[in-house]
Amino acid sequence: MTTESPHGKRALAPTLSSVPTPRSGVPTTGFGVSAINTRPELDRPVEEPERRSRAVLVAGALVAAAAVVAAVVAFRIMVPSIPSAEAAGASVAREEVRERPGSVVMFGQVHTYGDGLEIAVNPPQRYEPSGNATGVEGGVPVKMQVVVTNRTDAAFRPNTVQVSATSAGQPGTAIWDPDQGIALTGPDVSIPAGASLHFNLAFTVADPGDVTVELTPALFGYGPTVVQR
Fold this sequence. Notes:
By secondary structure, the chain is an alpha+beta fold. It has three helices and eleven strands.
């Protein structure tokens, strides 16, 4: 005799009518071994290798450019520049121009340079500077007349004249006295070929009876001429 549960029939464990297998004809997607091996592949960035390649190429180009610049700089440092024929000719011409030497002459005596330029300095004389004159302290003011005669083939400007004086072994002080037309050099005028010009220069000296003057007509092309008693 069988007894039944007061709640009805005894429940049986659920069973699968069919297990998905390759042979059962039931799709096996999502089940079993196939499900384990068929994971969806992750999306991989395709552009990452291309970006790296571009970065490598750019870095290589920069390194190559830096190497070229360094090589050029090193070459210029180690190899001096070769002067052009014109520069070399100008240098030779300048050296030839500098070969016009000066001389040692007496006050009032003329010295003639190789190109025909003549200069003379007359003996210094005492003078009374104006109230606006500068460089008059610490000695005796004297002035002297400079005569320039241009016997060259071109005009000459005496504002390139450089003059210094010594007295009793001491350097004289150049006087600038515009009220009396005395400057530190010659006037800024043009002396045509064949013409002459005279102007005054002045110095404060220790001994008016012992004065030596050194005069150079221009910075380039002329040597100094020493004028003394």
